[in-house]
Write a structure and sequence with these properties.
This protein is α+β, with helices and mostly antiparallel strands and 303 residues long. It has a seven-stranded antiparallel sheet, with helices on one face. A hairpin with a 3-residue loop joins strand 8 and strand 9.
């Protein structure tokens, strides 16, 4: 009888797909495996694995986005194609090493590079997984290259979204949190928050309008369908209409703007993660914000 129930439990678990309770989400297990081997080619007691409590928080994150239909990814509306939560152990093998361990290992990397690569040494960055000032900062001098190119990935300019979580606002100056722009001037990304001390601007293959934003922290997400809408913490607070623009041929960089292959307007802010995907409805924006917020709360870096 016990054997029968064990077999039944295994069958039910197999039919349930990747979201199995209890235990870690399959994507989280894959993330942990990829992170633990991203050690810059060095071996020893140091490792870039992810602690069990963080894996549990990431499992809840994955369950939420699966239940919302955001993942697995595709070119359909409301899908996440790439996501990094900037969590886990950073691999330190000396300040000159460019390996950032788990921190540069996306939880979801279905499109773009397998890692968020950087030419900068570890000493350029500041990172703490947990706490009110936790997250990753490039200190105004670094980039993370996603390898995700809009023209190779998205179906149209009217089916795109991206978001980033700011834990520490830093200086209100002319910096970009993430973005990519080609020689034509067309691009997508988040200028700011607090762009030029005026506000925050979201571009999505059309130039957005800066919106007054006193806080400069929280979860910012831009989505384009009929309009290009800028959301903060799940609530719309800026929108621009227009049907022009084309999918840029430059990949998205995080912590700065990729200006035709060169780092520009690098940010000194601290970030708790980012995502890139297809268009999100207003209801989906709120779900995604709440999902990010729960994860950031588990790491005590919520805003």
């Amino acid at each position: 009888m016990i054997r029968f129930f064990l077999i039944l439990l295994l069958c039910l678990s197999a039919q349930a797909g990747p979201v199995v309770f209890p235990g870690y989400d399959a994507q989280v297990m894959d993330w942990n495996n990829r992170a633990s081997t991203n050690n810059g080619g060095f071996s020893g007691s140091q490792n870039a694995s992810i602690k069990p409590s963080t894996r549990l928080a990431a499992t809840e994150f994955m369950r939420a986005i699966r239940n919302a239909g955001f993942y697995p990814s595709s070119t359909n509306v409301g899908k996440i194609m790439r996501l990094n939560l900037f969590a886990g152990n950073d691999f330190h093998n000396g300040n000159s090493d460019t390996c950032l361990g788990a921190v540069q290992t996306p939880l979801i990397s279905d499109f773009g590079n397998s890692l968020d690569t950087t030419p900068q040494a570890q000493a350029t960055f500041s990172y703490a997984e947990q706490g009110s000032t936790g997250g990753l900062s490039g200190n105004g001098a670094a980039q993370l290259q996603t390898g995700l190119v809009a023209s190779n990935t998205l179906s149209s300019v009217s089916n795109a979204s991206f978001g980033i979580y700011v834990t520490v606002p830093g200086l209100a100056s002319s910096t970009w949190s993430m973005g990519g722009q080609d020689p034509s001037g067309t691009g997508w990304g988040l200028a700011g928050p607090d762009f030029s001390g005026v506000g925050t601007r979201g571009d999505c293959f059309i130039v957005g309008t800066a919106v007054s934003d006193s806080g400069g922290k929280g979860f910012y997400c831009v989505s384009r369908q009929t309009n290009t809408d800028l959301y903060k913490n799940g609530v719309i607070f800026g929108s621009v209409s227009g049907t022009t623009g084309h999918l840029t041929v430059q990949d998205v960089w995080v912590l700065c703007l990729n200006l035709n292959g060169f780092r520009s307007s690098a940010s000194s802010k601290t970030f708790g993660g980012y995502c890139i995907g297809t268009t999100l409805t207003s209801a989906q924006q709120l779900v995604l914000y709440n999902t990010f917020q729960r994860f950031e709360t588990c790491l005590r870096r919520q805003q």
